[in-house]
Amino acid sequence: MTWTAPPVERGNRLGDLGTVTERRMLEGWLGWHRETLLAKCAGLRPAQLARTTVEPSNLTLLGLVRHMAEMERWWFRRSFAGEVIGDVYAGPSDGDEGLDGVHAADAQRDFGRLRTEAEACEAAVAGHDLDETFVSSRGVSLSLRWVYVLMIQEYARHNGHADFLRERTDGATGD
Fold first, then answer.
1. pLDDT tens, residue by residue, 43-90
2. I want to staple 70 with a disulfide (CB 3.0 to 4.6 A). Which of 4, 37, 98, 132 is the partner?
3. Which pTM was predicted?
4. Residue 80 neighbours by CB distance under 10 Å
5. Domain span at residue 90?
């Protein structure tokens, strides 16, 4: 049987985030956006996930999954937590981390990597205060709070891309 992107069970309900602590709110919004990207891919076969659908762009749903695994690792683990680990995906250093080099045959592995990376990132920041800072690769002092906000906007932006890619793939729309 051919692998398809699995359905997503929503664990983060936005209506539940209105009166929680700031930390829980940031974690909840990030979780919701993580789930949204995977939901955009649910039910698609590897070839569909790796297909470009909005020419002339070479953007794909699978590329977005790969890119977000790379961004999770870069900001939470490498930058904030200071872990000395390599990239998730090797490729050109042109700001398109993970977007290039997409192969349908790797779809199941790439989905697993995103989930594994998100879990590792959650573990890396557990117990750390939102006000804790680090110095970025550009020499700027940033807080963990800033990383959460950055990742929420990064997912939100790419989830918008995923909307168009999914609609062009099979007509499906929704959050």
1. 999 999 999 998 899 999 999 999 999 999 999 999 999 999 988 887
2. 98
3. 0.93
4. 23
5. 20-170
